[in-house]
Here is the input.
Amino acid sequence: MSNYTKVNFLDIENSAQSDDIDMRFARKYLDSRDLGVTLTRYKANYQAKMAHSHKVQEEAYVVIKGNGSVLLDDEVVEIKHWDVIRVAPEVIRAFKAGPDGLQIIAIGGPKPKDGDGVRHDLSWPNKK
Here is the structure.
């Protein structure tokens, strides 16, 4: 393993299963033992249909473009350009893009060999 690795997110294949999302996972391309780094780009007004949490992996999300909101368990938190939000592993999370779309970089810690993500059904609270 080298002392450093460089990769361009746009050289990594889009792993999303939706035309509304572009998701590029860099962990394996960086040959990283401890860090996962992902670029996710949501089209305007996209609203996640599924949520996820982790067993052990803490994550931080950096909004690099646009705005929107993130559902954290039962709380909706508004997010905007350059916000950074840290999320504990067990917190269920999902994203919603604003009218200009939303682009985030997620940074995660070490991932267990057999994976760590847990999928959850999602119900966005009604705005009052």
